# Entry
Amino acid sequence: MTKLQEEMSEQMELRTFYQKTREARGYSYGEIETGYLHSSQISRFEKGESMFSAECLLLAIQGLNMTPTEFFALMPTYEPSRLHVFMKQMSDYAINNDIEGMKKLLKPRAKKKIDKIYNVMVKVAIYDSSGENLITDNDRKLIQDYLTSIEQWTLFEIDVFSNCLEALSLKEAYYLGLEMLDCDELSNLLYSHADVVKRTLVNLYVHMVCNEQYTRANRIKNELEELLDAWDMEGKIIVSIFETFSKFKQEKSSELFEEIQSDIQVLKKFGIVDLAKRIEMFMAKEH
# Structure
């Protein structure tokens, strides 16, 4: 099959899937149209008479009350992105404390910027899990230059930032977190990737607490209190435990440390084992 034939086939699959999804969810063209997307455009797209621009496709998907991630994840021909596969592998290795498995993800002769960034993410994960520091000055400069030069935050940049905090200075990490919160695209990021944005801020809060940046940690915590809702129980639990840990680090009270250990056991009792393990790893490294 030629490249043109492949593109035509992909477009046909997209049109067919969109129409089936729209009909299954019970939406008419009129219910989906907006001031920037007319019902006739949707009709012509489904019939194969015209193509959607990227902007129109996003509007059409939003009209189904779905995020683009949800829409494409449900497509029969959907393949997870490299970032998704990479993050899943790294998370599995980290939970099992499989340092050698993580090291297999490293590309020793990486030339492409994306491969170098992935390498830094792996090195940070190795450091977080074992204390072994493979992060070089070049790695730190790469992440700093990349994140400070971006014009628009996307899911990829958020994941890089969240997973490379140890490769940044505390000042850089703090101000980049505030920049993400102040960016013009924040409402779009929260709409499409709310869980990732919130998890990133939780990670930043924990990072600041562990490095005794209490004033900065409190600023991030205040932002989280505005963002976390009743459905964000994991984030709320982490913030609560590390708020207690922050007090422990400052007051050196054995009662506070015992309170944290008790909270961890409660998590295990209710089957939230992975989260309990993650918090125990932090505690072991910091206590």
Q: What stands out?
A: The two ends are 60 Å apart (CA to CA). The chain has 16 helices and no strands.
